[in-house]
Write a structure and sequence with these properties.
By secondary structure, the chain is of the alpha+beta class. It has two domains: 8-177, Creatinase/prolidase N-terminal domain (Creatine Amidinohydrolase, Chain A, domain 1), CATH 3.40.350; 181-434, Creatine Amidinohydrolase, CATH 3.90.230. It has 13 helices and 17 strands. It has a six-stranded mixed beta sheet, sandwiched between helices. A hairpin with a 4-residue loop joins strand 14 (386-389) and strand 15 (394-397). Helix 8 crosses helix 9, helix 8 crosses helix 13 (420-434) and helix 10 packs antiparallel against helix 11. The longest helix is centred in the middle third of the chain and has 24 residues, at 181-204.
């Protein structure tokens, strides 16, 4: 394994959090993801379901976790079912977890081969009063592909139609939103690797390089430092492309006088980093580019200070809108008349800043969290204001990941160059060294 495994105590803690929120007599089932096919005999790289990762740490296909805290026999209260390995699998795919390895990695004492799953459920279902099943209830989810957990859910409800079904998603959204110290340490590693990639890119960028070459520089540095690559599809947009919020073609040549928007983050141990930086192709911002850059940076700094325990996320985003309105007035993109006549449902600032400012981040780059409840210590958010001016071929977005603390916050990306002067200095120092 290329990354450092979190201690089993993390997963023991996470399971206790989940089971303590279950109704008495409840049983819960969680399934791994599939290995998805492409075409012919090709497959995509395996990406584990983040829920079973959170509860067990197992990064392997064909895995099921059963939790039944009120089971009569102690050995039935937590059971992990894993794929049985053999010599042929070891030769072609690499060895899978043994029962002892699974026990050590997860802290689950009862490990069974997956072939025993249906028989074990049949034995235990007479004891349970309900079964918690999971489905993707993320606010942005748009699932068209059948997931392994969907097949598991369908099998259970068809096999045991009289068992009452409960949803595990509300519990998972709550417990996953508050990060523990081991999780924050892994997220810091992801952010540190992201910094290394950005430092490399600052030495590489110059007029004439392509967006995909910049993407390759990031990927090289990420992988060589133990990451499996990008936590999400990277956005490398120069000039006008920076104004396309989900631009992922990364195919254009970066021209002298343009600014490049780079929204990238490394993955480490399945945890995501999410960073955005904007750099001048030639190493120097023009006065107008610098004016917009500093306006976005001002909103970013003030937004970070607003993210405190007890604050409503609705109030937070409204406050950020007021900050952005003030900056857009200063740089001349809107005027007082625009503000006075604005539609409250779509304020004037939305013309140039049309997306949200923060989202939860963790095992998923857009992680689970309860948006209707106040911010808590242990939440980890992105902070990513932006100003996009298509008519000027200029888009500026800046983004860091921060951990909410009882008093203030900790910036996981505080060591990554952010100020315009720091960006220019790094780029021009590198250029001088090349000469």
């Amino acid at each position: 394994m290329r990354y450092d495994q979190a201690p089993a105590s993390l997963y023991v803690h996470n399971r206790k959090q989940f089971t303590s929120a279950m109704e008495r007599g409840g049983m819960a089932l969680f399934a791994s993801n599939d290995i998805y096919p492409t075409s012919a005999d090709g497959t995509l790289p395996f990406k584990q379901s983040t829920n079973i990762l959170h509860l067990s740490g197992v990064d392997q296909e064909e895995t099921v976790l059963l939790l039944f805290p009120d089971a009569h026999a102690e050995g039935d209260r937590e059971i992990l079912f894993v794929k049985e390995t053999n010599a042929q699998i070891a030769v072609w795919e690499g060895a899978k977890l043994t029962k002892e390895q699974a026990r050590d990695q997860t802290g689950v004492r009862s490990i069974q081969w997956l072939s025993m799953f249906e028989k074990t459920v049949q034995r235990l279902v007479t004891e349970c009063s309900s079964c918690y099943l999971h489905s993707n209830e993320h606010t942005r989810a748009n699932v068209e592909t059948e997931m392994r957990e969907t097949r598991l859910n369908n099998w259970f409800t068809e096999a045991y139609p009289h068992v009452r079904i409960e949803r595990s998603a509300p519990i998972m959204h709550r417990i996953r939103s508050v990060k523990t110290a081991p999780e924050i340490e892994l997220m810091q590693r992801a952010c540190d690797i992201t910094k290394a990639g950005f430092d490399r890119v600052l030495k590489f960028v110059k007029p004439g390089v392509t967006e995909y070459e910049i993407e390759a520089e990031f990927l090289h540095e990420f992988v060589r430092r133990g990451s499996r690559g990008f936590a999400y599809t990277p956005i490398i947009g120069s000039g006008y492309n920076a104004c396309v919020l989900h631009y992922i073609e990364n195919s254009e040549v970066c021209k002298d006088g343009e600014v490049i928007l780079m929204d990238v983050g490394a993955e480490y141990a399945n945890y995501a980093a999410d960073m955005t930086r904007c750099v001048p192709v030639n190493g120097r911002f023009t006065p107008r580019q610098r004016e917009i850059y500093d306006a976005v940076l001002s909103v970013m700094r003030a937004s970070m200070a607003m993210l405190q325990p007890g604050v409503s996320l609705h109030d937070y985003h409204s406050g950020v809108g007021e900050l952005m309105t003030e900056q857009l007035l200063k740089v001349g993109l809107i005027d007082r008349h625009d503000v006075e006549k604005q539609d409250p449902a779509w304020p004037a600032y939305k013309k140039y800043f049309m997306h949200g400012t923060s989202h939860f981040i963790g095992l998923d780059v857009h992680d689970f969290g309860l948006w209707h409840e106040p911010i808590q210590a242990g939440h980890v958010f992105t902070v990513e204001p932006g100003i996009y001016i298509p008519e000027e071929n200029l888009g500026i977005r800046l983004e860091n990941d921060i951990v909410i603390q009882e008093n203030g916050f900790h910036d996981l990306m505080g060591e990554i160059p952010l100020e315009a002067e720091a960006i220019e200095e790094a780029m021009n120092t590198a250029a001088a060294e090349v000469k």
